[in-house]
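Quick one, T. Sequence first:
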Amino acid sequence: MSVVDLQMAERRERILEAARELIARNGFDGLTMRELARESQVTAPTLYNLVGNKEEVLFAAVEQQTLGFVATLERTEPDLLSVVDATVRQLLRRPAYYKALLPVLASSESADPARRHVEGALARQIEAAIAALDERGELVDWADRDVLARQLRAHLDLCSLEWARGRHSSSSFRATARYGVAATLIGLCRGEAREGFERVARESQRDAYSRRGRRGRGPEKGHAA
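Structure tokens:
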């Protein structure tokens, strides 16, 4: 890679990092290309040449995060709870950014390319984990793998969006995501896999859907009940 290429790559990374910071601070609607150029210390023409318009900035920022997330998943054994935990960890690494981003991905037509990219990456990991269960003979014969994959992905999407909207604390987010997956798989697995999912469901149910991760102790500080 030439010196010029290295400089362009460094500027592009600076732009994307500045975009994440601004989205975390002001939301996607509050992101302006003028402020992004100023924060990333590049000119407006450079910004458009290296990344593109506002929607392309969003896609590039999400794509880069998604690639890192998938690389992390691919280094682990195909396992549904590992997919859940990795998803939760990814969001909690930059909570302000993802809390601003997820509602945009869920509702904005302009965010469709970025949303499809994230959904596709997550779907592939879930499908691989279900296939591993099936190949080990731990999935019941009548279970439809495609239907199950869509159900689990929808559950993770909903948990993530509820967390972004302040309906989960960090601990209850993880517990709710794990509980839903485990509770679903109890009826679809056999043997040790079923016992493992039942154990996870039992461990997670106390904190699932609780704003503070405890029953009866009220909302987290700074949030309305």
